[in-house]
Design goal:
With 350 residues, the protein is an alpha/beta fold. It has three domains: 177 residues, P-loop containing nucleotide triphosphate hydrolases (Rossmann fold, 3-Layer(aba) Sandwich); 66 residues, Helicase, Ruva Protein, domain 3 (Orthogonal Bundle), CATH 1.10.8.60; 80 residues, Winged helix-like DNA-binding domain superfamily/Winged helix DNA-binding domain (Arc Repressor Mutant, subunit A, Orthogonal Bundle). The protein has 15 helices and nine strands. A hairpin with a 2-residue loop joins β3 and β4. 37% of the residues are buried. The mean pLDDT is 93. This is ATPase.
Length: 350
């Protein structure tokens, strides 16, 4: 069902992404490392899970968001071990490692161990498996060089890796693919970029989704929903689910989506401390239509007092890295329609 809020795992539930599915599957077959990028709610997880299930390959899926605000290498290893424990074949591999012990809840790492060498042992035990690292940019906050681990896998281990991230600029910086001093520099890595649905496809997605659950909806409602939610398939799915399963109106759903977007942005900005007000001011300026660098500066100066060019450029670059804004046709725009609405409604705390 298109309106199932869970990530899709079957082609019939995954709307009109045949070309991307084919590209993804060919990439997994032919490249040691595949990069899947796209903003939040663009369908990255559904693409990866559906593609891997259709390929019929052993895979484990690591969601780095589960590591919390302070990710550690040990925590990353524990996620891998937990996922391996769910697979009958991979579970047998875990029994070989002397740095693991069996507790009431399954395998766990011993208190004292050499974490780095233990991680390499686990990775080598994943031979003929696809390792998916979702929201990988969050690993940049550890003190471990994951680009070195990925280069080691690329050169020496029979494991294919799929890396995905929604904060695309941060992901690029984390992997350092264009840095000649990076261990991944020059490696053959295939990137798949997911974009929002065009307007016509968004309308068709909603129509087909409503047909699947035998609910008749006027085209006016569908058009209004697409006007508000644009081509972000995650928001369109939320609308279809809440409208058909819980009987909520479009206005109620838009309100809930706006609050959810606001909560996510507020959390993302927490790390910026005293500089947070500058980030909010730039978002406010862009939401109101100030698309050029100069117009943004004038707004921020009026709102907060004088800001130097370097500081403003750093704020704008950080917002781009986080996936909150993009530069389009020489001007800046907020990428997500619900984030723009949240900013316009004053829901982002300075």
């Amino acid at each position: 069902m298109y309106f199932d809020p869970e990530p899709k795992r079957r082609r019939e539930d995954f709307y009109d992404y045949d070309e991307l599915l084919h590209e993804f599957q060919e990439s997994v077959r032919n490249y040691k490392i595949t990069l899947v990028t796209g903003l939040r709610r663009y369908g990255k997880t559904s693409l990866m899970l559906t593609g891997l299930n259709e390929l019929g390959v052993n895979h484990i899926f690591i969601d780095c968001r589960l590591l919390g605000d302070k990710p550690t290498l040990r925590g990353f290893m524990e996620l891998i071990i937990n996922e391996m424990s769910k697979d009958s074949t991979l579970r047998g591999i875990l029994g070989r490692f002397d740095f693991l012990e069996v507790g009431a809840l399954g395998f766990r790492l011993k208190v004292k161990l050499k974490v780095r060498s233990a991680l390499l042992s686990i990775i080598e035990g994943l031979s003929n498996t696809v390792l998916v690292i979702d929201e990988a940019q969050l690993l940049r906050n550890t003190n471990y060089r994951f680009d070195e681990l990925l280069a080691y896998i690329y050169d020496h281990v029979n494991v294919r890796v799929v890396i995905s991230g929604s904060e695309v600029g941060l992901l690029y910086r984390f992997l350092r693919l264009n840095d000649p001093e990076s261990p991944l520099y020059g490696r053959s890595i295939h990137e798949i970029r997911i974009k929002p649905l065009p307007r016509g496809k968004s309308m068709e997605f909603l129509r087909r989704g409503f047909e699947q659950v035998n609910v008749k909806v006027n085209d006016d409602v569908i058009e209004r929903a697409v006007n508000e939610l644009d081509g972000v398939i995650g928001w369109l799915t939320m609308f279809g689910y809440e409208y058909t399963r819980r009987g909520k109106s479009l206005e109620e759903i838009i309100h809930e989506a706006t609050l959810l977007a606001a909560s996510e942005v507020n959390k993302a900005l927490e790390i910026h401390g005293a500089a947070r007000a500058r980030f909010v001011a730039v978002l406010e300026s862009v939401a109101m239509g100030s698309s050029t660098w100069g117009s943004i500066k004038r707004y921020v100066n009026a709102r907060l007092g004088s800001i130097n060019d370097t500081a403003l450029s750093n704020v704008i670059k950080s917002l781009m890295d986080m996936g909150l804004i993009s530069k389009v046709n020489g001007g800046y725009v907020i990428n997500d329609p619900m984030v723009k609405r949240a900013v316009s409604n004053g829901l982002i705390k300075p």
